[in-house]
Amino acid sequence: MLNKRYDFIFYFDVQDGNPNGDPDAGNLPRIDAETGEGIVTDVCLKRKVRNYVQLTRTSQDKYDIFIKEKAILNREIDSAWKEANEGKSAEDVKTSDGKRKAEDAARERMCNKFYDVRTFGAVMTTGDHGAGQVRGPIQLTFSRSIDPIVSLEHSITRMAVTNEKDVDKERTMGRKFTVPYGLYRCHGFISANLAEQTGFAEDDLTLFWEAMQNMFEHDHSAARGLMSSRKLIIFEHETPLGNKAAHELFERVKCERVTEGPARSFDDYKITLDEVPLGKEFKKVVQV
Question: For residue 142, what is the DSSP state?
């Protein structure tokens, strides 16, 4: 189990792509209307971590993914409940104390089986066999771009039609939205106390760092353009409760422009820790 608290900063960028479309705005890149800064949700990054774990650990025990494509969540919860309670159903448990113990056993089974449950947590109170709620040890903030982003709209054509009635048109038109370039910064927190409750261990943490570095390499698409993991600064505390407030640590890391004109690459920025430029290595661990 983890015996230390961690806080971290994660930088990633996008070139000629849409890092996180907003379905309420016609899939435009998410943006802060007041500042013009680009936004990527925590859910978006968690999805990519899940996909990476599913891709690389799919045949191993303890690394199944709960929230995945075409998953029926209540079926998984019911299955875990029965496995943890010797095949009993909810109707077989009559007392409130018995129901609480059965739910605790099901929750432990879900944490042991699913990597994303013991990492990010989950709400499992739906269906006939509830497994309670799990608050995951790893929490992420929304990511924000260092500079305001520009959202470009492109007209695209397809040399085919969808319906027979449109055959005379010979082609169809569409729209595509991209960000020419954006460097985003995300803050993350890892609680040793919550890790103890979910069974999140050192090997799970190692896999998480691995996913943060490689998750974009296996998630390429024309819509997302070129997305890349750029820098991970990890603050490692000495104790489970930590030595300093997270915001004090985050303020030690600055990202500044080193060129004029529109930013178009990662080389247009300089990231410093306590005013010392960081090297080209991806991961930097700082003892707090």
Answer: P
Domain range list for the chain: 6-56+135-287
CB contact burial 175-197 (16+ within 10 A = b; e otherwise): eebbbbbbbbbbbbbbbbebbeb
10-residue averages of pLDDT along the chain (288 residues): 95 97 93 96 97 89 91 88 74 71 89 96 83 93 97 85 71 85 98 96 97 95 95 97 96 97 96 95 96
Q: What single DSSP character describes residue 159?
A: S
Distance CA 135, CA 127 (A): 19
What Rg do the C-alpha atoms of the chain give, in angstroms?
22
Helix axes 202-214, 42-57, angle to 10 degrees: 110
117-140 burial, b at 16+ Cβ within 10 Å, e below that, comes to bbbbbbebeebebbbbebebbbbb
pLDDT of 88 reads 64
| Residue 200 tokens, joined | 């999140």
